[in-house]
Design brief:
This protein has helices spanning 52-64, 92-95, 117-120, 125-128, 132-142, 186-190, 216-228, 247-258, 260-263, 285-294, 343-357, 386-393, 405-426, 435-462, 469-475, 495-500, 504-524, and strands at residues 24-26, 32-34, 68-72, 85-89, 100-105, 166-168, 175-177, 182-184, 239-245, 267-273, 295-299, 310-312, 327-329, 485-488, 491-494. It is globular, with a radius of gyration of 29 Å. Helix content is 36%, strand content 12%. Among the domains are: 55-111 and 127-237, no CATH class; 242-343 and 355-367, no CATH class; 478-525, no CATH class. With 525 residues, the protein is an alpha/beta fold. Helix 7 packs across helix 8 (247-258) and helix 13 packs antiparallel against helix 14 (435-462). The strands form 5 sheets. Strands 6-5-9-10-11-13-12 form a 7-stranded mixed sheet. A two-stranded antiparallel sheet has the order 1-2. Mean pLDDT is 82; it is low at 45-50 and 391-400. A hairpin with a 5-residue loop joins strand 1 and strand 2 (32-34). This is Arb2 domain-containing protein. It comes from Massariosphaeria phaeospora. One of its GO terms (cellular component) is nucleus.
């Protein structure tokens, strides 16, 4: 029998918790990009090690907006030594002055303050993929900001007194590491350093739980009891607007169904995001009435992407799934965790809360209709055709854009050029560390412009441009430079003229032949 000594095993992989050391930087739009290639996204599978630095960047931006970590159960803004669970909230003396307090209950699959890593690490950046942009939107709506001050600029800061009344719960990070003195999600726990690459992950024990936060149910109750129901943090007459996302929404419905009388007096209105709760699961009559009158849901829907378009309503009919409140389209993204990252969805939710705030006690959802949403019936079933279904969902007629291969190639190249130009603008020109990558990007942009011009000429010559585009291109025509002479139809013809006639392959062959002749002449010399 063979045994391998523990000290001979390969060490566990180690990666620095620093974006620049990993080859990334944060550009002026708050997006994570590669230092060598400023137009390229964060590499999602670079490592599965805990994403410390990304969360630290988000925390820094929230701190500049007056949103800090509040550690439970000690209720302190100074990180304690010992078991604790952090949430996000303004300083107590600021929070208790707010007449409206917005409470976000996230999914238990997310880290504190993170809405969607898939968007945070790509197009939306650190601000849009976390609660940073939502906090900025609240600040913009509730505070008189200086003229010409852009709150949505990356790194924009306000004084603590202007912080929005925002409390963000943390149902995802409920496992406490005594070694590192921090709360972790289950995913982050699995990424903790191991003795070697061959060892199992660090085991969880009862000692890794925090009192009052054994699971998301206890966590939500504890935050309500210790913060939201605590007059030292939230004024007794403050209006509480709750936004519950996915599993956070499901857990909140369970709690309200069991203890409605305890929590209902403080909840003014409720917005649900992509929950899977169905009406038959709601048995408490007062809760069901509240959901019908003062709650709405936004979710991924094949019927409409418009967050202002009602796509489903509670109904007395017996269906497999019945919504618990009026339900609206969840925006352009088809992933549930990305519904609340959508700016139109955030605006729709805040507009709903503003309407409720006019007279909370008397507010009742209007009588929404589904007249613009396809309603299948035995005589008029929903079409199985993808294009028709999409057109019907948006209330339009079928209009399939038939474009040529040349036009498609041109549009792809133009989009790539636009992305590269945007990346160049977002990359600081004065940073010496970014200078080589910026210079490479400028060269690639020059090449891409040439490719776009060539594709435009090719599509124009072959009649492949979209309707109306060809006329505009011809109107912008200017005399072109002449090129080298190449053999064509027994004559020596300008290569550029051959290209503009649409004979790109012939021109390329001729130019290649000239290059070969020049090389042969040099060899003979």
């Amino acid at each position: 029998m063979f045994r391998r000594a523990e000290d001979s095993l390969d060490a566990d992989a180690q990666y620095p918790a620093d974006l620049k050391q990993l080859g990334f930087f944060v550009n002026r739009k708050g997006q994570i990009r590669q230092i060598k290639y400023p137009d390229k996204d964060f590499i999602y599978n670079y490592t599965n090690i805990d994403r410390h630095n990304v969360r630290r960047e988000v925390e820094t931006r929230l701190t500049s907006l007056g949103i800090k970590k509040l550690y439970l159960p000690a209720l302190t803004y100074t990180k304690p030594t010992g078991p604790h669970i952090p949430i996000l909230a303004p300083p107590a003396e600021v929070l208790k002055t707010k007449k409206r307090v917005y409470v976000v209950i996230n999914s238990d699959s997310q880290d504190l303050g993170i809405l969607a890593y898939r968007q945070l690490q790509r197009e939306l950046g650190l601000n849009g993929g976390s609660v940073v942009d939502f906090a900025k939107e609240l600040t913009k709506r509730s505070t008189a900001l200086p003229q010409h001050f852009d709150i949505f600029e990356d790194g924009a800061a306000v004084e603590d007194k202007d912080a929005p009344g925002l409390v963000v719960m943390n149902p995802g990070q409920l496992y406490f590491s005594h070694k590192f003195n921090k709360a972790l999600s289950l995913t982050s726990w699995g990424a903790l350093p191991r003795k070697s690459i061959s060892h199992d992950q660090v085991q969880l024990h009862d000692e890794n739980n925090v009192a009052g936060h054994h699971g998301r149910n206890e966590h939500i109750k504890s935050v309500f009891k210790e913060v939201i129901h605590n007059p030292d943090f939230v004024s007794a007459d403050a209006e509480i607007y709750v936004i519950a996302i996915e599993t956070g929404a499901e857990e909140l419905m369970t709690i309200l169904g069991e203890e409605w009388d305890t929590y209902s007096p403080r909840i003014t209105s409720l917005a649900l995001i992509n929950s899977l709760v169905s009406s038959p699961q709601i048995s408490h009559p007062a809760l069901k009435s509240f959901l019908h009158r003062r709650a709405r849901e936004w979710q991924v829907s094949s019927l409409s992407r418009d967050p202002l378009q009602c796509v489903d309503l509670p109904s007395p009919l017996n269906r497999n799934y019945e919504p618990i409140c009026p339900t609206f389209g969840g925006g352009e993204n088809d992933v549930g965790e990305c519904v609340f990252t959508s700016k139109p969805v955030q605006h729709a939710i805040l507009a709903f809360f503003d309407a409720v705030a006019q007279d909370p006690a008397a507010y009742c959802n209007p009588a929404f209709t589904l007249e613009h949403v396809p309603q299948p019936s035995p005589d008029n079933p929903l079409t199985q055709d993808t294009y028709e279904a999409e057109a019907a969902a948006f209330g339009g007629s079928v209009d399939v854009a038939m474009i040529s291969a040349e036009q498609q190639a041109l549009e792809d190249a133009q989009q790539q050029l636009a992305d590269m130009l945007a990346a160049l603008e977002a990359t600081a020109p004065g940073d010496a560390e970014l200078a080589p990558g910026r210079a490479r990007l400028e060269k690639r942009i020059a090449r891409q412009k040439g490719e776009v011009q060539e594709l435009t000429q090719k599509a124009l010559a072959t009649g492949g441009l979209a309707k109306g585009v060809g006329v505009a291109e011809r109107d912008r025509w200017v005399p072109q430079k002449t090129g080298p002479k190449i053999p064509f139809a027994g004559e020596m013809v300008d290569a550029e003229l051959v290209k503009r006639a649409g004979l790109f392959d012939v021109a390329e062959e001729g130019l290649k032949g000239l290059e070969e002749e020049e090389e042969e002449e040099k060899a003979d010399e």
